[in-house]
Amino acid sequence: MKKFLWIVLIISSCSPVYVPNVRNAALFRGAGEVQVSGHVGSGIDLQSAVSVTDHIGVMANYEFLRRTRSGGDKYTKHNFWEGAVGYYENSDNMSYEIFGGYGRGEGTTYDDYNDLSAPPTKVLATGKYQRFFIQPSIGSNHRIFNWIVSARISYVDFDEFVHDGRSATYSDPVIFFEPAFTGRINFGKSPIYTQFQTGLSLDTTYGDPVYDYEAFNFSFGFGLRLGGLPREKADREN
Length: 238
What we know:
By secondary structure, this protein is mainly beta.
């Protein structure tokens, strides 16, 4: 077991097994609003959100990553899905929300294992995990440009590692603090918007996890916002 964890740690320097997804901060304006969006960053994120009532919303998100290095000889793969429910509120100039949710993911990496006593050898490592999270967000409510600050807290629990076909259990969950800043640009009265997001993933537990993770991420994408209150009733000029 110790040898297995040491192998995972050594290959982790450039091969993340946990890749945080884009924070979905809907900031609804009212009941009956639907949002769908796509983002490119660490991988590709597909996100959706619906406001069920004037204060309750739900969301569903999916992320997948395919990254190759050294001419395709080394690679990282990652898949993750999640669902969440939350409460939101808005005023003339500000919007607030808090969501809580659950998701599952799987990360795979194929990279060099560097042993000081032997030449580098390639290792295939896969980790499956579940994640519980709470995500409060606050943002501006203007007609053209809006800023959003999110502070996601994620409880990440890897329940299985597989190293070259051999399974091992890892039972030390990690709590990540994952703040993010989002800039969203609306195109007048058009339902289409574009946004960018930059975020961090910080391990708050004592010591380092045996797996690697992406500590910084940046994404850019487009979205579609339908329903809810008319923009002229919910937003104010910048």
